[in-house]
Structure formats: structure tokens, C-alpha cells
Design goal:
This protein has 374 residues and is α/β, with parallel strands linked by helices. 41% of the residues lie in helices and 16% in strands. The chain has helices at residues 2-8, 24-28, 39-54, 74-85, 100-111, 129-138, 160-169, 189-192, 218-221, 235-244, 255-271, 273-294, 323-332, 358-371; strands at 13-14, 65-71, 93-97, 116-120, 144-148, 150-151, 156-157, 173-177, 196-200, 211-217, 298-299, 310-314, 335-336, 338-339, 347-351. Strands 2-10-9-8-5-3-4 form a seven-stranded mixed sheet, with helices on both faces. It has a four-stranded antiparallel sheet with strand order 11-12-15-14, with helices on one face. Helix 8 (189-192) links the parallel strand 8 and strand 9. Helix 4 (74-85) crosses helix 5 and helix 6 (129-138) packs parallel to helix 7 (160-169). It starts with a helix and ends with a helix.
Length: 374
């Protein structure tokens, strides 16, 4: 038991966009084994599916929507949607990209031989709504549009609601990667007008890695039978199996991760729901950005486009700065940050989601202040 108790202790905070620091309750929820065929476990899955829809859809409209859990990371979920939802003939996907995860949707489309067009806006700029309108006016072959809400490459927040209005003006299917925003930013699916929204167990719900989830319009998913380009990632068949067998997955499910997610959803309710969690994340982010500015760091993204999830900072220009040394020093003192991912400039990233609170951010800033040797 001594070793187990030691494992349950947290040696450092993960200031990353996921996996992220989880609560002790979430970690302890994984200490029991579950059978994938057991009714208690499958009932738990069904509760999760219903709760996910309830988090973003008004009660009177919930029958129009459904949710599907899919084994694997968030990218598995994105691939399951793109590979299932887009027909093999007479269809074209428009990918709106301003970072690595928008680009990844283009890579998925290319690998699956989906007819697609990718429009890149650069790492530093949000997607421009009117540019989307112009593309849809010019290219009548486009049937589906995809976008990333919170692009964790840089920390930029895209105008997905504005884009959604335009996409629906042209009667296209709208796919939103809300990987790093769902559960941390209040989203109304009706206002967003998305047909499919995708996220992951190890993001703002504050669970652990193991599965992604898709919330979508039931009538659109029902039309996707036989379209999948993959056996394992067939979103329609996964949904059909869960519907007909009341929470049963087609293939072996990550039972411990599912139970941890169930606990994480309970803790989200206890905190006060998504609004309360978003308020905490925004306060974390505000403390971080203002404190880093006082220490002489410059953010990569202008404040008006900044998400409350993760922030990119431009690397100091001093010849004495070394990210690896900086990283190891912070880790030794209890904080793990992320290397930069933008292509334009040397940078690093600090996330503020997960079981992280304002006092944690203040302590981080003090550690950074003491770590500056350049």
C-alpha cells in the first residue's frame, strides 16, 4: 500500500493541453477492474453518453442529438468522423487550418483519399469567416467543412460560431474539432450549428487518455451507413452497436479510462458545470499571461484571439536561454510545460487546464522568476 499511495501522489503539475493533471478522485476511480459485457459497466457508458449531450444541448432538443465513444486519442475520433461522414463520391471537404491540428485533418483526408481542399491562415491568425464565405461561393463541390475550435499549436481561438452560420447558409455539413475546448468553454451545439463535434477524455472534462467522443445530429449520422473507410473507426457502426446493446462497444473498451471519465463528469458537476470551470480556466490564464508579461515574456498570439486553454510564449532571445534546461529546472520544482509547436518562431507553451488553480499559477510564476538566468 505504501507504493500505491506513493503512485497516487502527484510529483508535478502537468501544465499541458492534455494529458493534464487530474484529481485524486479520478485517479482512484481506476483502481477497480470492469467487465466490458457487464450491465453495470454498460449502464455507466450510457450515462456518460447522455451527460455529454446534456452538456451542450438544451433539454428540448436532446432527442435530435447523440454521442459516440471511440477508442484511441483525439485524432482517432477526428479520423473516425472524417472517414465515416464524408461519402466516397460526390463529396468534398474544406479544411480550415491555422495550426498543426487543422493540418492533421488535411493529412487524414489525404491518407483516406478523401476529396478535399485545405485553406491555411497561418499559425498566428484566426480563421477569417468572410474568406470561408468566398470559398463556398466559388467552390460548389464542397459538401463538408471542418475547423479546430481551440488550436493548441498556438493557443488561438477560432470564430467557430461565425463560421458555422456561414457554413449553414450554404447548407454544408459542419465538423468542429473541439478537442481542447469542450468542457472548458461553454458551447451550445444549437448556436454552433455543428453537425459533429469531437473531443477527448483527457482534456477539459479532466479525465485520463483512452478514448475520444463525438456528439452529433442523429439524423446526419444515420445517413452514414456503409461509408466508413475503416473497420475499427467506423463511427456509424460504433454508434449502432452502442444504441442496440445499451452501452456495449464493438471492440474492447478502455474500461478504467471510462470509469475515470465518469468520475470526472461528476466532479465537473460538483464544481458548478462548464461555466464555473471556464471561469477558473480564464482566471488561471489571466494570472499566467499578466505574470509572464511582468517577467518580460511576450505572447505569440494577441490577447483578443487567445484561448483560456494554453498560451504560447516567444522564446527569450538571449544566447543563455535553453528550453531543455528551462524545462528541466521547472520540472524539478513541480511544473511541466510544453515545447513550442508553431513553425514561425522559437517558442514554448504553458497550459492552465486540468486540476490547476490560480494559486498554482502564482507559484509557477514565482518558480519561473527564480529560474531566469539569462
Amino acid at each position: 500500500m505504501d507504493r500505491l499511495d506513493e503512485c497516487l501522489k502527484r510529483p508535478y503539475l502537468l501544465l499541458t493541453p492534455g494529458p493534464l493533471s487530474t484529481s485524486e478522485g479520478v485517479r482512484k476511480a481506476m483502481l477497480k477492474d470492469w467487465c466490458t459485457w457487464d450491465k453495470d459497466y454498460n449502464n455507466l457508458v450510457e450515462e456518460i453518453r447522455q451527460e455529454l449531450v446534456a452538456l451542450c444541448v438544451k433539454s428540448e432538443n436532446r432527442k435530435k442529438y447523440t454521442s459516440v465513444l471511440m477508442q484511441g486519442s483525439g485524432s482517432f475520433g477526428v479520423e473516425s468522423v472524417l472517414g465515416t461522414v464524408i461519402p466516397r463520391k460526390n463529396a468534398k471537404l474544406l479544411v480550415l487550418a491555422n495550426g498543426a491540428y487543422g493540418n492533421r485533418m488535411g493529412e487524414i483526408a489525404s491518407t483516406l483519399r478523401i476529396n478535399y481542399r485545405i485553406e491555411k491562415f497561418g499559425d498566428k491568425n484566426p480563421v477569417i469567416s468572410e474568406k470561408v464565405r468566398k470559398i463556398l461561393e466559388e467552390d460548389s463541390e464542397i459538401t463538408h467543412v471542418s475547423i479546430v475550435h481551440s488550436e493548441t499549436t498556438s493557443g488561438i481561438l477560432n470564430p467557430v460560431f461565425e463560421v458555422g452560420k456561414i457554413v449553414k447558409e450554404f447548407n454544408k455539413i459542419y465538423i468542429v474539432d473541439a478537442m481542447s475546448s469542450f468542457g472548458g468553454i461553454n458551447i451550445s451545439l444549437e448556436e454552433l450549428q455543428a453537425d459533429f463535434i469531437i473531443s477527448s477524455s483527457n482534456k477539459c472534462i479532466q479525465g485520463v487518455p483512452g478514448f475520444s467522443f463525438i456528439i452529433c445530429k442523429k439524423n446526419i449520422l444515420e445517413k452514414c451507413v456503409g461509408q466508413a473507410r475503416s473497420l475499427s473507426l467506423d463511427l456509424y457502426e460504433q454508434w449502432k452497436t452502442m444504441e442496440e446493446n445499451h452501452g456495449k462497444w464493438r471492440f474492447t473498451s478502455p474500461t478504467h479510462t471510462v470509469r475515470a471519465f465518469y468520475q470526472a463528469l461528476s466532479e465537473l458537476k460538483e464544481e458548478g458545470g462548464i461555466e464555473a470551470r471556464e471561469k477558473r480556466y480564464r482566471e488561471n490564464n489571466k494570472i499566467l499571461r499578466e505574470g509572464m508579461k511582468e517577467l518580460g515574456f511576450e505572447t505569440f498570439i494577441p490577447e483578443e484571439f487567445q484561448s483560456p486553454i494554453i498560451t504560447s510564449f516567444i522564446a527569450p532571445k538571449s544566447k543563455d536561454y535553453n528550453f531543455e534546461k528551462f524545462y528541466k529546472n521547472l520540472k524539478k520544482q513541480g511544473f511541466v510545460i510544453y515545447p513550442g509547436k508553431v513553425t514561425e518562431i522559437d517558442s514554448f507553451r504553458i497550459g492552465n487546464i486540468g486540476e490547476v488553480y490560480p494559486q498554482d499559477m502564482r507559484e509557477l510564476l514565482q518558480v519561473i522568476k527564480n529560474s531566469i538566468t539569462w
